[in-house]
Design a protein that fits this description.
The chain is mostly beta strands. It has one domain. It has 1 helix and 4 strands; from the N terminus they run βββαβ. A hairpin with a 4-residue loop joins strand 2 and strand 3.
């Protein structure tokens, strides 16, 4: 299984650096993060994790200031890691 880990915010700030994505609501763009791997979202493949990271906000699909796709999770620089606890 794969996990999404926050490296830093895309603007270079720490944000939830070192934490794992716990939940994400594509309708609101709201995400929660956790230090506990066992509470993190798990993905069968890295591709699925990457697709969630690139997903577009359902209610506000376009950014007002530049007209580009609104992808809230891309505010985070991420790494996709193996869940080492999986057997």
């Amino acid at each position: 299984m794969k996990l999404i880990k926050c490296v830093e915010l895309a603007n270079g700030e720490r944000g939830p650096a070192g934490q794992f994505l716990r939940s994400y609501d594509p309708k609101t763009g709201f995400s929660t993060w956790t230090i506990h791997k066992e509470k993190a979202m798990k993905f069968a493949e890295a591709t699925a994790a990457f697709m969630l990271w690139k997903s577009v906000h359902e209610r506000e699909p376009v950014r007002v200031h530049d007209g580009k796709p609104n992808r809230p999770l891309t505010a985070f620089t991420i790494a996709i890691e193996d869940d080492e606890d999986e057997v």
